[in-house]
Automatic annotation (TrEMBL):
Belongs to the glycogen phosphorylase family. It is an enzyme of class 2 (transferase). It holds the Pfam family Phosphorylase. CDD domains: GT35_Glycogen_Phosphorylase. InterPro entries: Glycg_phsphrylas, Glyco_trans_35, Pyridoxal_P_attach_site. It comes from Intestinimonas butyriciproducens. This is Alpha-1,4 glucan phosphorylase. Phosphorylase is an important allosteric enzyme in carbohydrate metabolism. Enzymes from different sources differ in their regulatory mechanisms and in their natural substrates. However, all known phosphorylases share catalytic and structural properties. The modification N6-(pyridoxal phosphate)lysine is found at residue 658. GO terms for cellular component: cytoplasm. It catalyses: [(1->4)-alpha-D-glucosyl](n) + phosphate = [(1->4)-alpha-D-glucosyl](n-1) + alpha-D-glucose 1-phosphate. One of its GO terms (molecular function) is pyridoxal phosphate binding. Keywords: Carbohydrate metabolism, Glycogen metabolism, Glycosyltransferase, Pyridoxal phosphate, Transferase. Its cofactor is pyridoxal 5'-phosphate.
Amino acid sequence: MAKKYTKKELEQQIIGKLRRNFGREVEEATPVHMFRACALVLRDIMSARELETESRIRDSHARQVHYLSLEFLMGRSLEKNAYNLGVLPQLKEAVEGLGFSAPDLFEVEPDAGLGNGGLGRLAACYLESMTTLEIPATGYSICYELGLFKQKIVDGQQVELPDNWLDVADCWLIPKVDETERVHFGGEVRDIWGEDGSHRVAYVGGSDVLAVPKDMEIAGYGTEHVNVLRLWDAKSPTPLDMSLFSRGEYLKAVEQQAMAESIAKILYPEDNHYEGKSLRLKQQYFFVSATVQCICRQHKAEYGTLRNFHQKHVIQINDTHPTLVIPELMRILLDEEGYGWDEAWHIVTHTVAYTNHTIMVEALERWPQQLIETLLPRVWQILVEISNRYQAHLNEYFHGDQSKVRDLAVIWGGEVRMANLCVCACFAVNGVSALHSDILKRETFHDVYVQTPEKFKNVTNGIDHRRWLSEINPKLDALIRECAGGDAYLLQPEKLVQLERYKEDASVLNRLAEIKAENKRSFAGYVARESGVLLNTDAIFDVQVKRLHEYKRQLLNVMHITYLYQRLKADPHFEFTPRVYLFGAKAAPGYSVAKEIIHLINSLAATVNADPACKDRLQVVFLENYRVSLAEKLMPASELSEQISTAGKEASGTGNMKFMMNGALTIGTLDGANVEMHQQVGDENIFLFGLKANEVAEKKAKGYRSYEYYMHDEFLKAVIDQITRGFDDGVGYADVTNRLLFGKGGPADEYMLLADFESYREAQERAGRTYRDPGRWNRMALVNIARSGIFAADRSIREYARNIWDVPAKKL
């Protein structure tokens, strides 16, 4: 039975931490001291539970899940951990009792800079759910010193600033120096043959980097089970060359240290040049090599052999970034354990499973052969052997049809294709929505699917509903508890459906509307404090927040806003429902088109917001530095959720689920998990538009001509011409519109914005008309919340546990 903590006990523990760890009395403590003291108190609770969890796992010899991801977008941890540990009310009281504001204290914590988008946010949700369901699991990633970047908007353009999150939030990390692993790069491989025909390899030259684990504990909800996110920090084995230092060559003396530590310096270095590619490959190998060595060392200490490794472990790789786990595990089994190829391959192919997150060709990683040969010579040899054996199998299966062999080969044309290595070696391959998994089977990996259909699975993504509904939207949480059987939905999200009994209850619908209005006012207050911008809370909050990418079509949204602006200018009596358009997005530093679209959004916003014709009718705001903690404030206030990617391009999405759970209605294409959301709520509770995935493919096959749409739609032509000229700041965007009309190094309007514009415009009109009928809008919102339970991460993790990992999950 978990110990219950009182306000007084927590106060005493916080005071103790302030004194022992920071040498401060409460009166001398800054908010940062107080935050760190609170974090250390919670960490102590979790540490005790972690030791008990480890003991139970050891005693039961349970199969363990190892979740490898280059991103874990954890957000802030203090409030979340307190919530899951069941001490949030007491912690708030203790903090207030010590003279600090609890809301202000939570704001002190920076977002943990361990990811840049949906991939990392999903991994964080899954780790919380695995812990709540008491699955023995560990997450693994890199302890990035700097996160993606802090985004500053200067003169309408994105500027990237360093995100030094560890300065304050490193109190969550527990260094385990005694479990350091050594990762080898470069050099040469020598084959050594024994007289009995045995073979071993020796490494000559090269350099080592130390991987030092720093563990972040993960608390589950309603359980004493604690899992761990292990983050690897990179250190040099020889921090300082004293001989060089004593000769006065100071920079050269620390060069090796700097080179080693660069691996964990920053999330995802730019890879559009050789040095960037080299560093990113080093990151990937560093993280998987340290992880596999760690798992193997612990397993061997327990069982004395690795022959049963695949029976006790499953390694889930989140996208292709951790793919080198396959040859690295082979290397350990072949070189360090002396197993034969067939036995080693059997273990690997029954241990590793792969989640695919994209069908975008540019995101299916390919590495230059020369880079792997140089940096990872032994891994390269193993990759060649895997490729040769697989290619021989493909030749036989496809009767020498080289077009098939070429598409599926692991190594071809001087490149190593990581996705092909995954489908070759992993015992399971899953997509992350029904549509996405179908595309993987029907198109992307079709020729592998026909050979091994049993390998392909679907697990539709899910979100941590405890965080993304209950914790961030307490007023809605209170209403749900009243109407849907108390707090049972927190562990049984399917119970949200009980809320639907009230869809005709005017008093419940009115309360739902008032909760949304309060959340809008609260968010508007936050925006006013942060930026001085005053939002019109009487208008629809129409929101598009996600990574800036052309296929996500923020530009289509901009085109429609431009259309509305032009109509308002031409006719002040133009009938339309007032809108506040909220954008939030970071563009990858090297993605020039995405950065130009951010500039365009800000140009449009400046013009619209300064024009008297738009006052109280149209407003556009770009929210700077979009991140988890900002999303937590925004989601409860949102009313219309923009999920408008080109059909067939978005694997799933998870933002769409967060909006849905918080009562926003979706305007979207039938793409990713929108398809399943539509199945849950029906035509009448969502605003669908646009081409379907098969129609996109057909239109492209027949020869899509975007220019014809431009010439035959006067509204669309006026919009494109306006964007080409630009707005009041005098900046033109001909490069953007030329890509739509004529292409640039690729097809014109690759993501079919012009083809979908009219349908999108009509869907926006439908949404506006519906909003003017509050009873109907609120009923639709309630139905969306009630039917969102299927998109909880608990459901996703149960499916992984049952259909892929073969591990039990706690019955709730």
